[in-house]
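Appendix B, record 7
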Amino acid sequence: MIARAARVALAAFAAALVFAAPFASPPPKDRGQYRPAVKDPVLQELEEANAAAEDAAAKVTDDLLAAQDQEEKAREAARRDFRMDLSGLRRPRGPEDFPARAWAFPPVAQYLTGTCWSFATTSFFESEIKRLSGREVKLSELWSVYHEYLDKARRHVATRGRSVFEEGSESEAIPRLWKTYGVVPESAYPGVLAPDGRHNHARMMDELKAYFAYCEANNYWNEDQVLSAVRGILDKHLGRPPERFDYEGRTYTPQAFLKEVAALDVDAYASFVSTSAHPFYTRCELDAEDNWWRADTYVNLPLEEWYALLVRAAQAGSSVAIGGDTSEPGYDGWNKVAVVPTFDVAPGYLDQDAREMRMAEGSTTDDHGIHLVGYARRDGADWFLIKDSARAARKAPPEGWLFYRGDYVKLKMLSYMVHRDFARDVLAKVQGGDAGIPK
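Structure tokens (predicted):
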């Protein structure tokens, strides 16, 4: 009976709980809130002390670097270049002092570019057009520059980044480029988009080199795609070259313009060097970085014959595309001259070996391309009128002109290009005669 009563009581209690649950109060809930963050004052003090110490150390470094920068600027401002004292030199005053002078357009500046090779050789061929046909045709320098970059890019891909990709080139590039791409007048392709009309290729070269660095890092050498990207960069900075253009009332392609207006046989030119590194009266390669396609068609002559051919062409009223070194004590843009001082080579000692030694040791380098347009004999010395696109020729008037004395040309110029008609006798001595030079 007791057990039964207990069970009944338990069941009644459970039923009471079931019926009572819906009517019970819910338990209280905790709530969240935002309140101001508080840092531990001791830790905050230590952190602030660390930051102050870092700032103080940074200021010490900044002050030291700034002081060093100022010292470097002061040293640079006080730096002096060793140059020949030209106070006693009697030099030509200007182009008017050169009785033998080829026609040429006024000098054009290349500004912040490494394109002297195109400015000089384009000017040379402008003079040749005038000499051969009587026409005055201003050609585009940047047309050749644009297409030279494409050719360089193509070779860079083929060599997987081993071929040179810089701004420089040689006069020999112009005939090669024009045979492939033709040529256009400057009016059809000025090759500059800047409102002030000044050439500035620094950013373009940075972009091209960065792109090729990417190609090398990723072994990405699809020629079509790489050339397409290079064209995009060139178009952005130089403008897209025309496929057709109007000139004096007619429409031309670049190839038709070369044939019909410029009327130049670009194969009718030869380039000459003088180096004992190769046999004389043979053709050889110009050993220079700017000869990036390794042209080996340069005719190698003994120094005296090399120089005599140059003088003969200049005396006859021809111009010459020439290039070489511009970093000597006797090279002075402020005084407009390039001469060899006696403390460099004493009179009577400027010979093949003096020239060769400077090429072999690296003090004669392939710095700059120029256009030789005149000749004069003055005080027993040869002088040459130089049309120059670089800044050195614009330090003093007359702007764009320099005067090279014969000794400087003999010692420091590496190569030149001239029409074959002025070199028939020399070319006849070359192994193979006029082989490779059209009749």
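Remarks on this record: Residues 124 and 259 are 17 Å apart (CA to CA). DSSP finds twelve helices and 13 strands in the chain.
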